[in-house]
Specification:
Strand content: 25-35%
Number of strands: 10
Shape: globular
Largest sheet: 6 strands, mixed
Number of helices: 8
Order of helices and strands: HEEEHEHEEHHHHEHEEE
Helix content: 25-40%
Structural class: alpha+beta
Distance between the termini: 69 Å
Strand order of the largest sheet: 7-4-1-2-3-8
């Protein structure tokens, strides 16, 4: 009886182990399928940010919809106040990027599939590697003793970093987030085409870039977005604004409060 019991026990344990292994494989497969994205085939939403020494300077939510050949841009206003009276931009990286993502998702009523927070050094590196481009500087700033304003025929990475980190702006008149979006438009107008697809993929997936960026985008994801953006000129471009109130009383900056902190409607629909 003891031998039969031992054989039964071994058989049971082997069966249980096999069942557990199959269950794990299924669960892992389901998880991978749930979190994987195909930007060229399905609608996806990405949060793009620029940061300087743990301070968020600019945030833009981008919705890619290949089925309707539309890309929508949603800038998040500077100094957005959450319900807790906490600045959205100040929650990064203190409470991790998850807090930023969750707060924005509630406000816009849409899930964010991926995020990329570029340090100003990452921004400078990307621009220098891709090459200079024309940009209409929206706000005057000084760099290396020279005043910059208006049309700039050769916007390079070092100049871009200086523009985003300039401390002399009147923050009641300047929106860094709007500046980030206009900069992105100019960058994409120059480089989002088939001539630069390979180079952009190389730059974005380089070891240097990945050391300077906080992201959950895999190399595969980045290359897929580069391929998608190679058709940028054929897409309709849509810019969306958050509805809310701007407050400029008793402060050197303007603060923004959204009309809705928990939207039940997808802002991109």
């Amino acid at each position: 009886m003891k031998i039969k019991f031992n054989l039964f026990l071994k058989s049971f344990l082997l069966s249980f182990a096999a069942f557990a292994l199959v269950a794990c494989i299924i669960l892992v497969s389901l998880y991978i399928n749930a979190v994987s994205i195909e930007p060229e085939k399905e609608e996806t939403t990405v949060l793009l940010g620029i940061a300087d020494k743990e301070k968020l300077l600019s945030l833009t939510v981008i919705n890619f919809d290949p089925s309707s050949t539309k890309i929508s841009f949603l800038p998040i206003p500077d100094n957005t106040l959450l319900e807790s009276n906490t600045l959205l931009q100040a929650t990064y990286p203190t409470a991790s990027v998850d807090t930023v993502l969750e707060s924005i998702e509630l406000i816009i009523g849409a899930e964010i599939d991926r995020y990329a927070i570029l340090s100003v050094d990452a921004l400078a590196y990307a621009v220098n590697e891709m090459g200079g481009f024309e940009y209409l500087i929206p706000n005057k700033f000084v760099y290396n003793g020279k005043l910059y304003s208006g049309p700039e025929r050769n916007m390079n990475g070092d100049l871009a970093r200086a523009m985003f980190t300039y401390k002399g702006y009147d923050m009641k008149k300047v929106s860094i987030s709007d500046m980030g979006l206009s900069f992105l438009y100019s960058f994409l107008s120059k480089f989002a085409n088939s001539s630069y697809t390979y180079k952009m993929g190389e730059v974005l997936t380089s070891d240097t870039m990945l050391r300077l960026i906080d992201t959950d985008l895999s190399d595969k994801d980045l290359l897929a977005y580069c391929s998608l953006l190679s058709r940028y000129s054929s897409y309709s471009i849509n810019e969306i604004k958050l509805m809310g109130t701007y407050h400029d009383e008793a402060s050197s900056s303007i603060y923004f409060t959204p009309n809705n902190y928990n939207s039940d409607k997808n802002i991109f629909k």
